[in-house]
Amino acid sequence: MSGLDRCHNVEDFRKMARSRLPSPFFHYLDGGADDEWSLRNNEAAFSRYSLLPALARDKGEIDLSVTVLGAPSSMPVMLSPTGMTRLFHREREIGVAKAANRAGLFYSLSTFGSTTIEDVAAANPGPKVFQVYITRDRNITRDLVERTRAAGFTALAVTVDTPTPGNRERDLHTGMTMPPRLSLASLFSFARSFGWTLDYLRDQNLSIANIDPSGAEFEAGGMSPVQYANHQIDPTISWADIEWLKGEWGGPMIVKGVLGVEEAKRAASAGANAIMISNHGGRQLDQCPAPIESLPAIRDAVGGDLELIVDGGVRRGTDIIKARALGADVCAIARPYLYALAAGGGKGVDRLLALLRAELERDLILMGKNKFEQVSAADVVMSPA
Ligand SMILES: Cc1cc2nc3c(=O)[nH]c(=O)nc-3n(C[C@H](O)[C@H](O)[C@H](O)COP(=O)(O)O)c2cc1C
């Protein structure tokens, strides 16, 4: 796959993904909810903080490594869960999971992934997370937890910000459907994305691989498998259900989708070991704070009780350093690796992660540091409004 050497940052991968994907899939990946204010603000909020360069630096190797939930990560970046990765490249979740493993980073598989828990575990022996939804039929969640344990995943992440799907208007404009349907409107974009369409013809399996649509409700309801999986997300979960999940799982648990101080405290009481401060990449409630904006108050409130993962809008090494300075343990990315996957499969993800690593190393040197863990609150200033 050529052309990857022309990608030098996330925006370059984004442009390449746009040129390769049928437009309904590009916009499904790229878009957010309502007016996409939160989507834009997730990135923009990072630029309200600045970093201080410094002269002095000890000699010695640059060390970006961190520990996340007791497991090593070669740099402070995790790969967030994303559903239906097969839409973007034939290598699907396997391509991303292998690239994460090569880079020594946590990979997260979504409940809505197009690859099974077991296949991801076989492809990636390193640290990994399974993201689960609490389903109306609790036996589905129970079964997913059991399979996650048997497959040797490091942690379970429960997403709590999706009681109903966000209003993604780009999908309405492009006619995005799951599974994709060939309409007159989409025909042109499929023909234009010749490489993608050829790949699709070779492997048309776009199923949600971990939820078996065989329940009585599915049989009776006339729903598609994707509609059935969406319908299964329980919109009424409470903190008692999170406690229940922790009891079922017993291992390290992340609550994903927290932005407020009170919710963060409740997550800790319900048994979370970490939270992903996240607004689902601006795809759910629009007009909510950016994760980086919520971080300082949450760190103040929870002290050292929770590991904090900033998830949303992270595009540069400098964003990751700002997050650390404001109290995060690690950052998570989703769209950046999906753009890279669409641009060039697992090799694209390798290149993206290598670029992020090089940025982080260079930025640390420019800030007079050897180790990522030396970054502190003294290194960041709030930019004048
Ligand atoms: C195409 C796409 C699919 C996603 N699917 C899921 C999912 O199945 N479960 C989940 O918890 N989050 C999902 N997310 C949200 C991401 O895990 C993550 O929270 C968010 O995208 C981070 O923001 P970023 O894309 O700016 O890095 C998805 C995001 C995208 C872009």
Number of helices: 16
Q: What gross morphology would you assign? A: globular
Domain module tally: 1
Main pleated-sheet profile: 8 strands, parallel
**If strands are numbered along the chain, what order do they take across the biggest sheet?**
4-11-10-9-8-7-6-5
Tell me the structural class.
Answer: alpha/beta
Helical percent range? 40-55%
Using the coordinates shown, work out and report the CATH topology.
TIM Barrel
Q: What radius of gyration results from the CA coordinates?
A: 20 Å
Q: Mean pLDDT, rounded to whole units?
A: 94
Question: At the fourth CATH level, what is the homologous superfamily?
Answer: Aldolase class I
- Please provide the count of β strands: 12
**Low-pLDDT stretches:** none
CATH class, named Alpha Beta
Element string (H = helix, E = strand): HHHEEEEHEHEHEHHHHHHEHEHEHEHE
Bound molecules: flavin mononucleotide
Q: What is the level-2 CATH architecture name?
A: Alpha-Beta Barrel
Strand content: 5-15%
> What is the terminal separation in angstroms?
44 Å
Q: Could you explain the architecture of this structure?
A:
With 385 residues, the protein is an alpha/beta fold. The protein has helices at residues 10-20, 23-30, 37-44, 92-103, 117-123, 138-150, 169-174, 184-192, 194-202, 216-221, 225-232, 239-249, 261-269, 291-302, 317-325, 335-366, and strands at residues 49-51, 66-68, 71-73, 77-79, 107-110, 128-132, 155-159, 253-258, 274-278, 307-311, 330-333, 380-382. It has an eight-stranded parallel β-sheet. Strands 1-12 form a two-stranded antiparallel ribbon. A two-stranded antiparallel ribbon has the order 2-3. Helix 14 links the parallel strand 9 (274-278) and strand 10. It is globular. The chain binds flavin mononucleotide. Residues 29, 42, 80-83, 110, 112, 131, 159, 256, 278, 280-281, 283, 311-314, 333-335, 338 line the site of flavin mononucleotide (FMN).
